[in-house]
Amino acid sequence: MRAPRLTLLFKAAVGVMAVTALAACATTKDEPAAQVSAAQPPSLTTAPTEPEIMPARPPVVPGSLTHDIGADTPDRVYFEYDNADLSPEGMVALQKQAAWLQRYPTVTLVIEGHSDERGTREYNLALAARRAVAVRIFLMTNGVSAARLETVSYGKERPSCTASGDQCWRLNRRAVSTVKSTP
């Protein structure tokens, strides 16, 4: 006698939980935001009834940071041979990137790790991945959300300089931050 009653209570509880879960997932119709006219200056005698809208910033387009924000914020940092440690110059550049990202909170970056042509393909992919992760961690410790940062490793597959030699190899040991395109 007790078992059927417990089964009935259990089924009722599961039903209530299911209905509650479905009700929580229900959507409501979105209403368009109220438009604020920029032509009318706010009255000094009355309290504002609507929040002020910040001036519009130019849209950020996918691509390199230097294309989007000018030469003020570098889009890349360079690394020493066989190393994924950030240099002091790299940290300064990344602090500027972090400040820029805080001004544009909807932007997502893809951090590309690269290496020079020396070494095996597998080794260079791993090294370039460590470089990209080093940049990501630095930006996160400077206030950028991890959800806004993606990493990709290209190893030696996408050199910025195709000649052989120290000068060219130095340019290829890098991490480049690019603005991710939105769907």
Describe the structure.
By secondary structure, the protein is α+β, with helices and mostly antiparallel strands. The chain has a domain at 84-179: 60s Ribosomal Protein L30, Chain: A (2-Layer Sandwich), CATH 3.30.1330.60. 40% of the residues lie in helices and 13% in strands. It contains 5 helices and 5 strands, in the order αβαβαβαβαβ. The chain has helices spanning 2-25, 65-69, 88-103, 121-141, 166-172; strands at residues 63-64, 76-78, 109-114, 149-155, 174-179. Strands 1, 2, 3, 4 and 5 form a 5-stranded mixed beta sheet that branches. Strand 3 (109-114), helix 4 (121-141) and strand 4 form a beta-alpha-beta unit. Helix 3 crosses helix 4. The longest helix is centred in the N-terminal third of the chain and has 24 residues, at 2-25. It is globular and about 75 Å long. The chain starts with a helix and ends with a strand. 24% of the residues are buried. The model is unreliable at 16-58 (pLDDT under 50).
